[in-house]
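Researcher: Re-running this chain for the archive, since the previous output was lost when a drive failed. Same request as before.
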Amino acid sequence: MEVKSDNVQEQINQINQKLDLVLHYVNEQRLKSETIEDLVSDVSIISKDAFASVVDELDTQGIELNINDIKLLAFKLVRNVNNFSQVMDMFESVTDLLKDAGPIINEVGIDFTHKLHDFEQKGYFEFFKELTNIMDNIISSYSPEDVRALSDNVVTILDTVKNLTQPDMLNALNNALNIFKNLDTENIQEYSLWRVFREMNTPEMKRGIGFIMTFLKNLSKDSIASK
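Model: Regenerated structure tokens:
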């Protein structure tokens, strides 16, 4: 009988321990519930105050809210949740790309800086600065009418430059310049009419006169044809 009494007492003790745990749990839940209720109450008060402030501010600014418009906006937001998610995924992808491309962009920036330094050392910037001075002089020296006339005749000018840059024309001009450069302009011999007549009978003068006459003849033909 004594053994059975001890078992009963042990079971009672275990039941008491479990009841204590249950009561402790219930008490904790009650405290949590009270805390949540207090929090909800505080949030409700804050929300009411914030809502009242927003309403007053909207009224001050003369803004009227339409409940239906707000509902439509909310529905649109709900319908486009997937789109917002895709945008965020895209933003995360771009962010990851920028992180991965950061070292590459840094290297490109360093190379670009070095290239600019090389350009500066070689005088590119000074060259472009002088070009701007040339452009300033051109702009200050010519009127818009002159530029307009230039644009009207730019094809003719380019054709002239093209013809001047042909190898045979460049050789002829170069020969003429070399001859002029080698002339002693301070010691030019005087020619009498008789000497001129004699020089005109030389093969060189005859070819020169023939060249001038042919040139003038063809020039006259082109002038008449252009009219």
